[in-house]
Design a protein that fits this description.
The complex is a heterotrimer of chains A (821), B (162) and C (300).
Chain A (H helix, E strand, L loop, with lengths): L4 E2 L28 H5 L15 E7 L5 E7 L1 H5 L3 E6 H5 L22 E2 L5 E7 L2 H10 L1 E6 L6 H4 L17 E9 L2 H6 L3 E9 L11 E7 L4 E6 L4 H4 L1 H6 L7 E5 L14 H13 L3 E4 L2 H7 L7 E9 L5 E11 L9 H6 L11 E9 L14 H18 L4 H8 L8 E2 L5 E2 L4 H12 L1 H13 L3 E4 L2 E7 L22 E7 L5 E5 L8 H13 L6 E5 L16 H28 L6 E4 L2 E4 L7 E2 H10 L14 E6 L19 E14 L4 E12 L6 H20 L32 E4 L22 H12 L9 E2 L3 H15 L1
Parallel strand pairs in A: 2-13, 9-31, 11-12, 15-16, 22-23, 29-30
Antiparallel strand pairs in A: 1-17, 2-6, 3-5, 3-7, 4-6, 8-16, 9-14, 10-11, 10-13, 14-15, 17-18, 19-28, 20-28, 21-22, 21-27, 24-25, 25-26, 28-29
Chain B lengths: L2 E8 L2 E8 L4 H8 L18 E4 L2 E4 L12 E3 L12 H8 L9 H14 L5 H8 L10 H20 L1
Parallel strand pairs in B: 1-5
Antiparallel strand pairs in B: 1-2, 3-4, 3-5
Chain C lengths: L6 E3 L4 H10 L4 E4 L5 H6 L7 E4 L9 E4 L2 E5 L4 H5 L2 H6 L1 H7 L5 H6 L2 H7 L6 H8 L2 E6 L2 E6 H4 L13 E7 L7 E7 L9 E10 L2 E10 L9 H5 L8 H14 L10 H22 L15
Parallel strand pairs in C: 1-3, 2-3
Antiparallel strand pairs in C: 4-5, 5-8, 6-7, 6-8, 9-10, 10-11
Helix pairs in contact in C: 11-12
The chains are: A alpha+beta (821), B alpha+beta (162), C alpha+beta (300).
């Protein structure tokens, strides 16, 4: 059992570059390396790939949520000129196996439905043709007969379903995929001793990343070598890409995945498997390269990456001095038709399940149900954003029931700056932080007292203004070790989540950095360039970036879990150390001096303390590449290159189901304070002001951090107010288009999101960098819920369900009005 | 007729093709002419990623048939500045971090090109009004607004110099 | 999402277009701006055998004012209509409602007449034309007829055009001098298809209202102007009780349906609120000499 509190003999880290050094490039708002190509239409996205003799695939989507496939008549489709193949699930299964799944026991998923469809939009047939137009023409000619099975659309129905309503009978006679209980600390004791217990039922609706670019792949199969080449906008190909080879029934070295620029992901392209496997399966069958790019309907119905969909029954124990002591919850999570990441989205939440507070014990009962919907995957926050919502709603519930001040209550319960590193009851560690500092900054930036006055004045005019506050954690740098404790039967146990770079300094002193993960809409090129330029005092213009495929890939986990900037920084710093050593050694020979007397300044290897002395890196590089015989005949080799694999900066083995060890310790923090005006008669919400204070440790590039804060907050506004995949009782997805799935446009955004930064560097990462990728979406929803609730205080309504749509808000207010009479 | 000859001017060059009447303008631009800078997001006319200019007017190319543009002047992202000589609008997006993944960016640049031609000095409200045409999922829009404001400055300076 | 195969014709005169309509015996669709039609084609919700592209008929692209009547040709774009000086002067409610019509890129190319023919139940312009008492000039190779809004619009997504007919012009008659107007739409996002909308025009003389026109969108099939609501105000002295009565009448008259965005009860409830608000705003504006429209109000 993990004891919550300050750790007095903290684990020793491997940090080599401290945060408190004079930095020239890190910390500047350097313009992004990535941008010029995107600004001129030269990005390379998946649909831009065109191979000779390439064919095009389109999927026939299941119109039913749950049905047995009785027969498929594809004669008319096959007869259409230009059609190359009409592939059924049975035909695909001749050579292609199940898709990767990290739950154990697994839930079998096929790239084309085999025997049964389990959600609307699931591919039933894949048509390959000369053009996408013809492929869609042919798909419309395929006749499929179905035996309709009962569809499970409501997660509560899934708790009791049986017989034909069970999605995966081979896995047991129920739609409850997992039912796990975890106890961290003395939960029952804390509740028995509590002075107050606050209870709430909370509902978080299913939304999704919905990047503007869908998922896609172009695959080719070379029969001679038995090798697949797949272009795709996926990530994690250098981590678990071999599982795609397993699906395709080839050896891992018979698969090369070539990454493309991803037109946004937000988790949804974390590890694409169905799309590349579909393209590859088709390519092997037709013997030509095949492109399969989801259209928007495919993506919304079947992208395998819908977000969390939960009902919480939560209880919070508070002692007589108004300190929170324990949190206990039962959560039902509607995972959809499959379970690719198991309970990963709940394990993720365990990394920060007490938020920024000194809560000593946590009890969690997790019920994962299967329903006839698109399966869950990753969505910015990976489940922790829901944990944050739950914690902050419970905090606000306590404040409201005990008639306390929301600011003071937080101050009184925060883990204090001197208590780090701090261990939380699940065993995870928080490395550093200053939560009161962030709240204080937010209050000041917002002019909290000023808005409280305006709120009073407005109320006198019959207008309803509300101020929201949420203080949330942003866990960074996952190490998938928590998965050890999530599966019922142990599986997917690993302890590595590394990131690598390869750096070459060429003959002319120009550097090329190879990344082993894709461009995902983040700024990997900018970050890697800035760190290398800092290390070697190179001009950033003299650094180029490439992305390696799996053939050339070193261990790379890729962007996800707010890890990439931390990890690639560590990898570049590590590779730079190797390069610097060699540059000094070569320069030492050239200058007839000891390498120890050399340093790097302004692109030179110079004598310590004498800027402008020594040789330029280009001069040293030329010697190193071309003039071996100028140097002693020792173990020196020609060239200047380095591979470096940076491992997780601080993770420990999981100990037990009540102590997960350290698995997500690089802890960012955020305090958001929105001000909203609510029209109680129509339920419409307008954001009047918005302050966002973030702590992501040392910032490599504050400009791109701010971009993430704003973009993440926009998505959080979407989650809070607009976005919800809506399935009807028959399992039909009612809003599978951008007309009806409502993502914020600029009119929904406040004029400005005013950003503040608190910087508490991590003692464990290079330069003290923390993650910042998921940010805003992990805090805006509870902040906005609080603001709406505050605005409607005279009606005493509770915003416990998101999204808070006009209809939902008005319904709450009307009920209050009616009660009042 | 299910097929038609089409002749258009794309970024100042003539293009002549025989195509199916049903071919979307976005597919014509991207796959027939190889100008892949224009992106397709929803094929529903909602997201605006595919926006190009037809006779100077912003058009959703995913909801336009190529044959509708017979004889028209088409401008795409490829008609703006190049990597070594960005246009003021592109330069401003670079300086102000007006893009992250870059997928919606071509559409954003084209609607803003149209706006700035119609009104070289738009205020913030006018920029927001026009920006509401298109979806961006990365930036939260604020840095795009700042980018367009910066472009107005850059273009004003450029005019002053001339 | 690619359109199915179809024949394509591109007449360049109205006469040729009407001939084409008479000649085509199969299923066909007229294409003007295309922003309503193409999404349906891309999704293959419809598969017409022929598309008749009327966008090249230059003679139909006009907005003119003659003897107090504003005439809007079949190919006049939303942009052309909303920025026409006569429209802004004579019927400011058009401009106000246009704030909610799609966005600039849609208004660039989309046509008023196309939108009226499509008759999406959430679209604003069918209601606005009803309030304005607009008439619809419909032609075929055989002749022409002129319909009232009531006769032109049928249920959702339908109109009373015969297959060989085409809406060639909409006529807006002279509006009462000094009338007050208001249009309010509730949508989740700005510019979205509305959850509910209400419009009101009225004339105020010596504290008595007359020529009251009130109607709704997306609050029940075929609901244009609602006489039961108008009757609560017509020829009555303005007071809070009358407005409340109209509001109550609205609650009773609308027949909203639930959809994914809002339930019926919500819509019924906001119908009452919207009614009150549009009447109050219209009253405030009535008699004012000019109401200068500001287009960026909502977004600034």
């Amino acid at each position: 059992m993990a004891q919550a509190g300050k750790i007095h003999s903290p684990p020793k880290g491997r940090q080599k570059e401290s945060a408190d050094q004079n930095l020239k490039i890190i910390g500047t708002r350097m313009k992004r390396k990535e941008d010029p190509r995107f600004l001129t239409g030269n990005g390379r996205f998946i649909d831009d790939v065109s191979l000779p003799h390439m064919a095009h695939a389109a999927a026939l989507r299941s119109p039913h949520a749950h049905a047995r496939i009785r027969s498929i008549d594809k004669k008319a489709a096959e007869a259409l000129p230009g059609v190359l193949a009409v592939i059924t699930g049975e035909e695909a299964a001749l050579e292609t196996g199940p898709l990767p799944c990290f739950a154990n026991p697994p839930v079998e998923q096929r790239c084309i439905a085999l025997g049964k469809v389990r959600h609307v939009g699931e591919p039933v047939v894949l048509v390959v043709a000369e053009t996408r137009y013809i492929a869609e023409d042919a798909a419309a000619l395929v006749k499929v007969e179905y035996d309709i099975l009962p569809a499970i659309s409501d997660m509560l129905d899934a708790l009791n379903s049986s017989g034909d309503a069970v999605l995966h009978p081979s896995r047991g006679p129920s739609n409850i995929a997992e039912h796990r209980k975890y106890t961290f600390g003395a939960v029952d004791e804390e509740f028995a001793n509590a002075a107050h217990i606050v209870k709430r039922r909370l509902r978080w609706a299913r939304s999704g990343g919905q990047p503007i670019e869908t998922c896609g792949a172009v695959a080719n199969f070379d029969e001679g070598s038995g090798k697949f080449t797949i272009y795709a906008n996926t990530s994690m190909y250098n981590y678990i890409g071999f599982t795609i080879a397993a699906s395709l029934n080839v050896e891992s070295h018979q698969l090369n995945i070539i990454p493309m620029d991803a037109g946004g992901s937000f988790g949804s392209k974390l590890f694409l498997h169905k799309v590349p496997v579909l393209a590859a399966t088709a390519a092997r069958i037709v013997g030509r390269p095949v492109k399969y790019v989801e259209d928007r309907v495919d993506n919304m119905m079947a992208c395998d990456n819908h977000g969390s969909d939960r009902i919480y029954d939560a209880e919070l124990a508070i002692d007589s001095s108004n300190h929170m002591t324990a949190l206990r919850y039962r959560v039902i999570d509607d995972y959809g038709a499959y379970l690719q990441y198991g309970l990963g989205t709940h394990g993720n939440g365990f990394s920060q399940t007490v938020g920024p507070y000194r809560i000593r014990a946590v009890g969690a009962e997790i019920i994962a149900v299967l329903t006839n919907k698109c399966q869950q995957g990753a969505c910015r926050g990976f489940g922790s954003e829901v944990t944050n919502f739950m914690i902050e709603r419970m905090v606000d519930a306590a404040v409201s029931e005990l008639k306390l001040d929301p600011v003071q209550f937080r101050y009184d319960n925060f883990i204090q700056p001197e208590e780090f590193p701090y261990q939380i009851p699940t065993g995870n560690l928080y490395d550093s932080g200053n939560y009161p500092g962030a709240l204080k900054m937010a209050l000041g930036m917002l002019d909290y007292q000023g808005w409280r006055r305006k709120q009073q004045e407005a109320r006198a005019e019959g207008r309803y203004i509300g101020i929201g506050l949420a203080s949330c954690q942003e866990k960074g740098v996952f190490s998938a070790t928590e998965f050890w404790m999530l599966n019922r039967e142990k599986g997917f146990a690993l302890t590595s989540s590394p990131e690598s770079v390869s750096i070459k300094i060429d003959t002319n002193g120009k550097a090329v950095i190879s990344l082993h993960a894709p461009h995902w809409g983040n700024s990997p090129e900018t970050v890697a360039t800035m760190v290398l330029a800092e290390q070697l005092t190179l001009d950033p213009k003299d650094i180029a970036i490439t992305y390696s495929d799996t053939d050339h890939g070193l261990p790379g986990t890729g962007p996800g879990g707010s890890r990439y900037t931390v990890m690639v920084t560590g990898a570049v710093a590590g590779a730079a150390r190797i390069l610097k050593e060699k540059l000094k050694r070569v320069a030492g020979h050239m200058l007839e001096t000891s390498p120890h007397d050399l340093e790097f300044s302004n692109g030179r290897v110079s004598i310590k303390g004498i800027p402008g002395s020594g040789k330029t890196i280009a001069e040293v590089a030329m010697q190193s590449h071309m003039f071996r015989l100028s140097f002693p005949d020792d173990d020196l080799t020609s060239g200047l290159d380095a591979n470096y694999t940076y491992d997780h900066p601080l993770a420990t083995l999981p100990k037990s189901e009540s102590d997960f060890g350290i698995f997500y310790p690089i802890m960012g923090h955020m305090c958001h304070m929105p001000v909203v005006e609510v029209d109680p008669k129509t339920g419409q919400v307008k954001i009047l002001d918005y302050v966002a204070v973030h702590d992501c440790g040392t910032m490599i590039n504050p400009m791109t951090v701010d971009g993430h804060v704003r973009g993440g907050t926009a998505q959080g506004i979407g989650t809070a107010l607009y976005e919800e995949f809506q399935y009807d009782p028959n399992g039909q997805l009612r809003n599978a288009s951008f007309y009806d799935y409502l993502m914020p446009r600029v009119a929904e955004m406040p004029d400005k999101i005013r950003i503040g930064h608190i910087i508490t560097p991590s003692p464990y990462t290079e330069y003290g960098v923390k993650g910042a990728g998921e940010g805003g979406r992990m805090v805006a929803p509870p902040a906005l819920a609080a603001a709406i609730e505050d605005a409607l205080r005279p009606f005493n309504v509770k915003i416990d369900t998101l999204p808070a749509t006009p209809a939902r808000i008005r319904t709450l207010v009307r009920a209050a009005e009616n009660q009042r009479g | 007729m299910k097929e038609r000859d089409i002749q258009v001017t794309v970024n100042g060059r003539n293009a002549k093709k025989r195509i199916e009447a049903r071919m979307l303008l976005s597919d014509f631009i991207r796959h027939e002419l190889g100008l892949t800078g224009t992106h397709v997001g929803c094929e529903n006319g909602v997201c605006g990623a595919c926006t190009i200019l037809v006779d100077g007017t912003a058009v959703r190319s995913c909801c336009t048939l190529a044959v509708q543009t017979e004889g028209c002047h088409i401008e795409t992202i490829e008609s703006l500045g190049r990597v070594n000589k960005l246009s003021p609008l592109q330069q401003a997006f670079w300086e102000k971090h007006g893009l992250q993944c870059g997928f919606c960016t071509p559409g954003m640049l084209m609607i803003m090109t149209e706006l700035l031609r119609q009104n070289p000095n738009p205020d913030r409200a006018q920029i927001r009004e026009r920006l509401n045409d298109n979806l961006c999922r990365c930036t939260g829009y604020e840095d795009i607004i700042s980018s367009v404001e910066r472009a107005v400055e850059l273009m004003r300076a450029e005019r002053g110099v001339q | 999402m690619k359109p199915p195969v179809f024949d394509y014709e591109q007449p360049t005169s109205l006469r040729a277009a009407l001939e084409s309509l008479s000649r085509n015996t199969g299923t066909f669709k007229l294409l003007a701006g295309g922003y309503s039609l193409l999404p349906l084609l891309n999704a293959r919700t419809i598969s017409p055998e022929c598309i008749i592209d009327i966008s090249r008929i230059g003679e139909l692209r006009y907005v003119t004012e003659e003897a107090g009547t504003i005439r809007i040709g079949a190919l006049a774009t939303h942009d052309q209509v909303m920025n026409n000086s006569a429209v802004i002067r004579e019927c400011p409610i058009v401009f106000e409602a246009y704030k909610h019509v799609g966005n600039h890129t849609i208004r660039n190319r989309g046509t008023l007449c196309g939108s009226l023919c499509f008759n999406d139940p959430t679209a604003e312009m069918p209601l606005i034309m009803s309030l304005l008492g607009a008439t619809f000039v419909v032609r075929s190779s055989w002749g022409s007829r002129t319909l009232s809004a009531n006769d032109f619009f049928k249920g959702p997504f339908t109109n009373s055009l015969m297959p060989n007919e085409m809406l060639v012009e909409v006529r807006i008659p002279r509006q009462p001098a000094g009338h007050g107007h208001s249009f309010i739409e509730i949508s989740q996002r700005y510019g979205d298809r509305g959850l509910a909308a209400a419009g009101c025009m009225l004339t105020l003389k010596y504290g008595v209202v007359s020529d009251v026109r009130i109607g709704f969108r997306n609050l029940g099939e075929g609901l244009g102007r609602v006489r039961a609501v108008e009757a609560e105000l017509e020829n009555k002295a303005v007071n809070a009780a009358a407005i409340d009565a109209a509001s109550t009448a609205a609650r009773q008259s609308v027949r909203p349906e639930a959809d994914m965005h809002a339930d019926a009860e919500y819509r019924r409830d906001v119908a009452a609120t919207l009614t009150k608000r549009v009447i109050e705003t219209a009253l405030m504006r009535a008699g004012q000499t000019s109401h200068v429209p500001s287009f960026s109000g909502r977004l600034s």
